[in-house]
Amino acid sequence: MIGPAPGWEHVDMRLQQGSVRFLVQPVKVVTSMGTVYTEQVAANKANGFEVILQDGPSPTGGPSTDGGTSLATFADVQDAWEFAAIATHYVNARSPAKLVDGIGDTRTGSQRPNGIVDDRSAMAVFEAVVGDDTAPIESLQE
Hints:
By secondary structure, the chain is of the alpha+beta class. The protein contains 3 helices and 7 strands, in the order ββββββααβα. Helix 1 crosses helix 3 (122-130). 23% of the residues lie in helices and 30% in strands. Strands 1, 2, 3, 4, 5, 6 and 7 form a 7-stranded mixed sheet that branches.
């Protein structure tokens, strides 16, 4: 399993460096009328684990506990944590904004996963999310 980049701390259910956080949250993925969405639930009620990027402090000055950008949802919590760890390496080389802005950009080949990922590795999903911009994570690939 890939660990987070240097300088990132594991705090509660997130990886954190300064005001940038990757949260791993237990969720229930629901499909309704062709739309897929997630609801935060207790771990024992979850059917997936969502990786969320938050950048910046909350309005009260502490870490934000809501909002952020959903990056991917995995059936396996270990895959979610590995995806978050890979993302720390990417963000250290680029920026949180570069990661968020590139999601779904078809010009770079970015593909956002829809629903629960249970058939691909965390690395394969991350490579799909960043499209052609894989240079910051090439050293992590097996």
